[in-house]
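Worked example 2:
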Amino acid sequence: MIWLPLLAAGPALAATTNGPRGVLCVGGLAVAVGATLGIRDGVPGRELAAVLSALVAVTLASGLAGVLRGRRERVLAAVRSVAETAQHALLKPVPSTVGPFQVAVRYSAAAAEARIGGDLYALIPTPHGVRLIVGDVRGKGLPAVGTAALVLGVFREAAHDEPDLLAVVDRIERSLARNLGRDDFVTAVVAGYPREGQLEVVNCGHAPPLLVRASGTISPVEPVLPAPPLGLRDLAGYTPGLHTLPFADGDQLLLYTDGVTEARDGGRAFYPLAEGLKRHVSQEPAHTLGALHEELLAHVGGRLHDDAALLLIRKPAVRAAQAEAGAAGGTGPAGPVPEATCCS
């Protein structure tokens, strides 16, 4: 009689992993076992009836809990589906080759269930060369996602329309000034490759990209003129400057958000991105970012506490790029690498 009430643990635990049918089966088994043991051991009828009634009540309650859990799981699955659709619309997949560049992207949202956050990136071929942006919206949640969508929408239009990279940044700034609140802003790096061997970079309050030369040296691309984040130009009273630098065959550029450099381990030490890049840099951007991302997750213990984005471009040698294109085509001499038509 002392141990019979423990049979109620069966249907209660079944509710955590099974639907109502499974809970009822376990509850029915518990009632049958309780009745058999009670009759065998001569438990008084009134006490046995009380125990069996409690088992039935726990079974019904557990079945109801299983129904509610199933509904919550379906709602969560729908939310994840919507979030994934929104992410694909907002942060479209980037192909491995865009124009003359090899490209790789890694993105992790802090809100694991939503799988989307306030970091943004895009890379598109335009009549003015390949252009790209990596940014970080102040705040989190749906407001940050809305701001990221606004920035990317303006960037994609302006990147095609404006021949000057600073004009692209001005278009984004004007749009944010009309639509953001007084305390909202976006840090971003906008870059372009207008002509062979030349890279343009505009830094608006963002972490400096890391430039990896073909020789293996790594250095940050500091802004020539410190500029405020996008959306705060009116308060600062000055505009960003255009930084032009050589970008030769074999060079690479890594753009990232502060979710990477501000990731801490158990001892509160920041992740050393430049050192990690030096350890893992290779001629395949996808392999480089894959190794960096795994090391970053290991550094924080498996779960990031802020959105993190990594975008790496590499300028392969012209002959190597043509050889790859010829191998992919399978016929005739290799031609220039075609530009992607949908890549932002």
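DSSP finds ten helices and eleven strands in the chain. The mean pLDDT is 83.
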